[in-house]
Amino acid sequence: MSGSQNHKPQKPQSPGLLARQPRGFADRGPADIAATERMLAHIREVYTLYGFDALETPFIEYTDALGKFLPDQDRPNEGVFSFQDDDEQWLSLRYDLTAPLARHVAENYDTLPKPFRSYRAGWVFRNEKPGPGRFRQFMQFDADTVGAPSVSADAEICMMAADTLEKVGIARGDYAVKINNRKVLDGVLEAIGLSDDAHAARRLVVLRAIDKLDRLGAEGVALLLGEGRKDESGDFTKGAGLDADQIARVLAFTQARGTDAASTLANLEKVVEGSARGIEGVAELREIAALVAAAGYDDGRVQIDPAVVRGLEYYTGPVYEAELTFTIAGDDGQPVRFGSVAGGGRYDGLVARFRGEAVPATGFSIGVSRLLAALKIIDSPIARDTDHVGPVVVLVLDRGEIAHYHGLVSRLRGAGIRAELYLGGAGMRAQMKYADRRNSPCVVIQGSDERAQGTVQIKDLVAGAEQADAARELDNAAYKAQRLAQFSVPEADLVEAVRGVLGARQG
């Protein structure tokens, strides 16, 4: 063709970086954040009632301050995310809130009241293999007592855990706070020949195996105590290498629970027979059982259960878990218990790492995301999205009057009403869609006619949607002629009119 050239089609431009979320991490929207904040407020109320005060520690600690207590020591960086600073010092993202507390107490030991009672909420990070329900970043909410050697502190923590679950809406009978003692397990390990330091790694494998009892059952735990176990994905986990008699002794320990605390304690005494440390652990459990009974929590809320172990090695005495006992549908559709949402125990040696002297401590940690998931399942008001109401949106119909629209928004905000001015460049229909997506209760509309008359139009979006459903049978012209849930008021009455709409939504 004269005056023309053949052009090859242009390849589309590269969109740039691929937007992708790292595995094991999650974004959170406003509804989830609001529900979390409501739940944290209820938990904080109980902790405060028990006399605990707030404390905040950094996300990052020196790696050696965190110690070597992780449940996945065989993974890169020993289960933590680590890096070096300019001084070539190794730093790590905290993997729990307990190790930073131990550092804080040791660093400020002389000025802190003792016992030191604190609560902390925050994100923790694990460099572990992610999977369904297993995240590399998650939130915990802890409460700890440092400087109290008596198991009375452990009993109190367990009773507070029960009160906390009920405060957030878990019904009595749908949960149990279960207590065991690491000293009893130490007695069992002594009986099977794993008590000395040369077997530290195998002991940790045993702890981690028992900690999976609820999920894998006795058969799965037996495999992990022996040569190892292959999971559903085909991954093989190396076991502790125990022989048949050793495995039987460990399983007997986990299955020692009787019909009541007295029978359970009697069974445990038989399992640890011959071990002074094991007998000491049983005695501590007996004291805790008596304290729990005296306070009236022995009605099923707080129980002695030998199956509770806790995977972290730094526990030195009583250990406990808060388990939700109602059932949900498992991956195979079969009913399964929801399981643990919190846990903890006594860690008398953790602060001592810094001070060279024993400093008794005990505490527990709530898995915030897991507990919130449970509240959603039972339809707790805390987890519902009822409180997530978007802002009142002031529409912009005349961009030459933007200053006046700012004045309307400012008037609403000055009255304590959450409001925003539409800042995009779209027309009225798109602005209305925007307000819907923002979950706005109403919009404020003022064109040139309304401004000349000194009025504004208020459109109740919730009532409008309800009326629209009822008006579907009208013909199209009649439907469009309706101004559903929309009314006019003098501009001076803007705040009062908007408050009326908001009050109707709350009522």
UniProtKB/TrEMBL annotation:
Q: Which UniProt keywords apply?
A: Aminoacyl-tRNA synthetase, ATP-binding, Cytoplasm, Ligase, Nucleotide-binding, Protein biosynthesis
Pfam families tied to this protein: HGTP_anticodon, tRNA-synt_His
Enzyme class at the top of the EC tree: ligase
Subunit (UniProt):
Homodimer.
The cross-references to PANTHER family, in alphabetical order and at most eight, read: HISTIDINE--TRNA LIGASE, HISTIDYL-TRNA SYNTHETASE
Family named by the database record: Belongs to the class-II aminoacyl-tRNA synthetase family.
Q: What is this protein called?
A: Histidine--tRNA ligase
Q: Say which species the protein is native to.
A: Pseudochelatococcus lubricantis
